[in-house]
Backbone:
């Protein structure tokens, strides 16, 4: 990219400068820190110069936005043409409570919906299961049957609003209910757009809401892929998620590597299931964390796009450009927020959101300042959404595409992250892919090690967190917290029991039996059976039980 | 269930069998956030405590059963789901029922300050909230928990 002679002059200039720098620094009584590192522990040099990116080939490694390898963005016009979707994650209490919050957020300018389900739903239990005691509606919305889904999206036209649903173990079941609810609204399947997370590998690695063991879970995922390719072509069938991997304590490189390795496993499974790669690959999307180390995060998104484009084109021989594009949603890092001085979290979220925008995200969730204490209040959720609107409308950061491209520092970081992530992917390939690596507990152990190492840095004060181990206040700011109505559990159980009483017992039982048969026949696609069951108001727990009989359940190995 | 550092220490004093402090770290309820639980389990193990970790998604019954089988001196529960008001008292109730009242129960997680006095009144010994250091928890265990025989 540059004149070699000039570069070597710059390199020696840098070395001379560094000697002077070190000398002057010593005279000035040392530096602020012994070692400078990213939050992930990667060393940061004092200065980056053009010679450090001399091997970068512009057309091969950066290219232009909207063209291979998409380092600078997946769309040719990026935010000039289409602003990222402001998609705030929401869900608590009953379907009515969450429907109210959805409509509030839409009235405030939010442009897409994102549903948080409560833990019993995430684990495939109905609200009246003994496993659900104390958890109904507490950490998300309770969805047991089509009835709840109808209420959740009441007066929200599903053919016009894109909806994301964060669910994995029972993703196919909840998606079937969504399709049945859309059908009742009169919205044709081929006009539905949105995302179902449906990323089970990440669950074993990090988030830990699963139902079945890895192999049958992979079958459910390929069934969803095949079904959507035919019937719901605008739907994003998997959101391959690094977010939770990072929240569990991974480094940025681990987040990047494990997420792409999960993606590789899904593409491989789809191809092995007989679906042509270019038919399903364009509908895979990604989900990354935006942690507090600004430049490391931007480099991570840029590296992710380039790596995925190469993986799809070179490893999987995808021919369509749309198959090469890594489109992603971003959420600011919940784990970066502090319970101490919670108002400071507004600032953290703004910085993290800015990294997402400068990194070229397609969709963004900004956390509320109170999320480390409870679910967001309406006020806190509004400020979080306003943060995105201020970034878009006032700061001018969405006007030029990939504004940090060409920064010696950012390009160098991008290349280093790519190199280190590829090393992880190579190790996982050697183990036989991510499904096998997960069974061995490999990513789980790597993340646990990183989490422990980081906690030591915080406890020792080497990594400073304002309000937590630095600048501690005497007086804590008290902020109002959302309390979920304790009556939700009782009302939700009553509703689910009423649904079971009112439906046709004969048709519901037939749908469950058909589902069980489909589970035993690996050649049959489960999705049509699940949609039939949803239409008959078969509950989530009943659907999962019908499959548990054949598939079994996954148990946590408890590694630490 | 993973167990670490389960070596019995040698007899000390006048033939009195002394063993290390044994702690069960449990994740009750359905939330999958085990980062804190695993970090604490490791920190305690590194500090010489015998640690039994239950793994995720345990019911109060499973936790108390494990505590009984492993003959632990204390149970540390980690709850981030907001279900602490149900889960902590349930474990205490079962401990009482099994006549295991001398097992100390402590915990942590996303627990609003205003809920803590109620939990302490019910018999939870100590509640750690976000920002607690590994050192604080290890010091608490060393200062508060001793082998029951």
Residues:
């Amino acid at each position: 990219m540059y004149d070699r002679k000039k570069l070597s002059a710059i390199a020696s200039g840098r070395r001379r400068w560094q000697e002077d720098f070190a000398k002057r620094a010593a005279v000035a009584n040392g530096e602020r820190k012994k070692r400078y590192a990213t939050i992930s522990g990667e060393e940061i040099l004092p200065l980056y110069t053009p010679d450090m990116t001399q091997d970068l080939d512009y057309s091969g490694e950066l290219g232009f936005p909207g063209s291979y390898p998409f380092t600078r963005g997946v769309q040719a016009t990026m935010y000039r043409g289409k602003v990222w979707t402001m998609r705030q994650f929401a869900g608590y209490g009953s379907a009515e409570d969450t429907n109210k919050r959805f409509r509030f957020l839409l009235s405030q300018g939010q442009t897409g919906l994102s549903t948080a389900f409560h833990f019993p739903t995430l684990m495939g239990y109905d609200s009246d299961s003994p496993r659900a005691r104390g958890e109904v509606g507490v950490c998300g919305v309770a969805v047991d049957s089509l009835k709840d889904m109808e209420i959740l999206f009441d007066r929200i036209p599903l053919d016009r609003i894109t909806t994301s649903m964060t669910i994995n173990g029972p993703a196919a079941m909840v998606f079937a209910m969504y399709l049945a609810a859309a059908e009742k609204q009169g919205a044709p399947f081929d006009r539905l757009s949105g995302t179902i997370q449906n990323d089970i590998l990440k669950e074993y690695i990090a988030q830990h809401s699963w139902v079945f063991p890895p192999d049958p879970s992979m079958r459910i995922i390929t069934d969803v892929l095949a079904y959507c390719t035919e019937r719901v072509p605008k739907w994003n069938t998997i959101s391959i998620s690094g977010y939770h991997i990072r929240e569990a304590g991974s480094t940025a490189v681990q987040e990047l590597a494990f997420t792409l390795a999960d993606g590789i496993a899904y593409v491989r499974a789809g191809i092995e299931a007989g679906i042509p790669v270019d038919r399903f690959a364009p509908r895979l999307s990604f989900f990354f964390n935006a942690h507090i180390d600004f430049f490391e995060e931007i480099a991570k998104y840029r590296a992710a796009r380039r790596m995925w484009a190469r993986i799809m084109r070179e490893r999987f021989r995808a021919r369509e450009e749309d198959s090469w594009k890594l489109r992603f949603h971003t959420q600011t890092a919940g784990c970066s927020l502090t319970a101490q001085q919670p108002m400071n979290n507004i600032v953290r979220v703004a910085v993290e959101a800015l990294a997402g925008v400068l990194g070229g995200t397609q969709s963004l969730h900004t956390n509320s300042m109170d999320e480390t204490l409870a679910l967001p209040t309406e006020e806190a959720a509004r400020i979080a959404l306003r943060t995105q609107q201020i970034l878009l409308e006032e700061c001018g950061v969405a006007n030029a595409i990939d504004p940090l491209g060409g920064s010696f520092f950012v390009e160098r970081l991008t290349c280093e992250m790519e190199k280190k992530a590829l090393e992880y992917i190579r190790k996982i390939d050697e183990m036989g892919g991510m499904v096998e690596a997960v069974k061995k507990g490999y990513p789980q152990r790597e993340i646990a090690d990183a989490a422990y190492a980081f906690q030591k840095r915080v406890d020792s004060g080497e990594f400073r967190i304002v309000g937590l181990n630095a600048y501690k206040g005497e007086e804590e700011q008290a902020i109002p917290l959302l309390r979920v109505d304790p009556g939700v559990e009782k009302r939700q159980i009553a509703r689910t029991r009423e649904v079971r009483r009112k439906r046709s017992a004969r048709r519901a039982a037939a749908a469950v039996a058909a589902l069980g048969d489909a589970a035993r026949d690996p050649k049959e696609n489960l999705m049509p059976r699940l949609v039939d069951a949803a239409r008959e108001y078969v509950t989530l727990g009943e659907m999962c039980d019908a499959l548990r009989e054949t598939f079994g359940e996954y148990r946590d190995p408890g590694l630490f | 269930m993973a167990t670490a550092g389960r070596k019995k220490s040698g007899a000390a004093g006048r033939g009195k069998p002394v063993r290390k402090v044994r702690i069960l770290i449990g994740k009750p309820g359905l939330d999958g956030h085990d980062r804190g639980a695993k970090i604490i389990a490791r920190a305690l193990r590194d500090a010489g405590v015998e640690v039994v970790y239950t793994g995720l998604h345990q019911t109060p019954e499973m936790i108390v059963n494990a505590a009984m089988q492993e003959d632990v001196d204390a149970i540390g529960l980690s709850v981030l789901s907001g279900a602490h008001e149900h889960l902590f008292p349930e474990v205490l109730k079962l401990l009482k029922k099994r006549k295991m009242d001398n097992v100390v129960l402590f915990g942590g997680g996303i627990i609003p300050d205003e809920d803590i006095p109620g939990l302490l009144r019910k018999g939870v010994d100590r509640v750690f909230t976000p920002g607690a250091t590994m050192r604080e928890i290890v010091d608490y265990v060393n200062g508060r928990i001793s082998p029951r025989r």
Observations:
- Residues 4-13 of chain B have pLDDT under 50 and may be disordered.
- The longest helix of chain B spans residues 84-97.
- Chain B is about 35% helix and 20% strand.
